[in-house]
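Re: beginner question about structure tokens

> Can someone show what the tokenized structure looks like for a real chain? I only ever see the sequence side.

Sure, here's an example I had lying around. Input first:
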Amino acid sequence: MTLEGTFTFNGPQIVVWELLQDPAVLARTLPGTERLEASGPDAYQGVMKVSVGPVSAAKFNVNIALADKVAPSRFAMQIDAKGALGHTRGTATIELTAADDVHTLMRYTSNVQVGGTIAAVGQRMLESVSKAMMKQALESLNQELQRRLAERQDEP
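And the corresponding structure tokens:
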């Protein structure tokens, strides 16, 4: 399954970059994330819950590795997740460009393979669930960005 899209953040590119590199922010904003922690340089481990159709709240142990980082413009991700009801392996590329002084355009492309029970039971719904989760995550990240920018304005 391939997902591609764009999203415009209401903030400068460098601040968006910082958010995307912060596991604490990602843990708060990615749907279903119970835990996400740094496990090494540009590597993260965590636990996520995902519901697809009749499969509700399936837990996955997730490993994420970042590569090809060119701050604050782009990076790639390798994602591996395993759980009792299946597994997921995928790659994603993220590109950030300044739309203007106060907006950042993100372009993303991901290619994900899903296997196991969750794929067999929810195959028809995987793409729509993935798109909905991506939209929710990006909107949550944008809200976190607004909080961070407001805190910076409040600083003396």
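Each token stands for a local structural state, so reading them left to right follows the chain. Helices lie at 13-20, 23-29, 117-122, 126-154.
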